[in-house]
Amino acid sequence: MPSLWLIIEATIVMVIVTLLSIKAGFVDPSGLLSSFIVGYIIYIFGDKLFFIPLLIFYVIAGLMTKVRYEEKKLKGAAEEKLGARGWKNVLANGGVAAAIVCISAYTNSISRPELLAAYLGAISTAYADTLATEIGLLYPREPRLITNMKPVPAGMPGGVSPYGTVAQLLSAFTIVPATVLFLPIGDKLSAFLNLLVIVTISSFLGSTFDSLIGATAQAVYKCRICGKVTEKSVHCNAETQLLRGIKYIDNNMVNLLATIVGAIIAYMLVYSGLVPLKIEM
Ligand SMILES: [Zn+2]
Fold this sequence. Notes:
Layout: H1 4-24, H2 29-66, H3 69-74, H4 87-106, H5 113-136, E1 144-145, E2 159-160, H6 162-170, H7 172-181, H8 188-216, E3 220-222, E4 229-230, E5 234-235, E6 238-239, E7 241-244, H9 251-271
Antiparallel strand pairs: 1-2, 3-4, 3-7, 5-6
Helix pairs in contact: 1-2, 2-4, 2-5, 2-7, 4-5, 4-9, 5-6, 5-8, 5-9, 7-8, 8-9
The protein binds zinc ion (ZN).
Residues 223, 225-226, 228, 235-236 line the site of zinc ion.
């Protein structure tokens, strides 16, 4: 069970984070409630070691969504509502991570390194995917579809760009140093290097899986009013027409599946002994 002090600490930090999110417009009211719940669960069961990587994802992804927002909007590929994300987006990106922390706490195995790896694999996949999208949108030319490398309009599911790929690969360099700071272990350098390998591989493969499903199974629609190709089932206040993919596989579903893939890859890297990771709590 979490100590009373940890509960008080988590409450204070989450209230501050929530107030700052309202000011920054990171999430809409539904996203605010769900991100409070996800953040609070992760803090009280996983303490700072698990909470800080989540916070980094939340803040940096939130800021990157806002960067040159007007330009992304002109491309027709910006997040709606000035980039404020809703509850479905929060759960699609943070739900698997929160579930891993709950399972770890419930089974008293929060100190097992493969579970920390799985947690970071889930978080960093969502983070790498968000950064790849938001930074990729700043690329001056059209992205290309990951399956056949043909140019596609900006914002098309499965589209990749050089900026996005670099962002995807570098995202580990922000999450891992912060995690190592709170890692209760002697040899921080080897933990840092091993975590860097685990997080880079799992987040890259997880977010690449996201692009592959985005390019194949994810539903893509065409607006009956303005003719725009979109991943939304409603555009210009009218129901859109399915162009390709499966109706029920939307962006949130793809994100959720990708975080599961990222978590499994990171878990296997440690569990198999391919990348050693020791933590003592
Ligand atoms: Zn339209």
